[in-house]
Specification:
mainly alpha
């Protein structure tokens, strides 16, 4: 089930629904920046520009950015791996 980890971590259904709404007041500026980064990375990494990096740097420390990029790329990679070999999300 998609978002099971978010539910387990205590996210409400409203907050989970807000993931697809960049303008939602339920998301912090930090969360919005991270989601924007993840979306661009997954769809077209070439669209990650200086403006997005500036936004990310205003919300995250350098160490947090490294962690964000590492985790995001890993999970996107895992998702693509699962798709290629036909695994369904658990």
């Amino acid at each position: 089930m998609r978002y099971a980890g978010a539910r387990h971590a205590g996210a409400t259904e409203a907050k989970i629904a807000a993931i697809n709404d960049e303008s939602s007041d339920l998301l912090s500026p930090r969360e919005r920046a991270a989601l924007k980064f993840a979306e661009k990375l997954a769809v077209d990494h070439q669209k990650i520009d200086g403006a997005l990096w500036a936004e990310l740097r205003s919300q995250f420390t350098e160490a947090e950015l490294i962690e964000l990029v590492a985790h995001t790329t890993l999970y996107i990679g895992f998702g693509r791996f699962n798709e290629i070999i036909g695994l369904e999300p658990a």
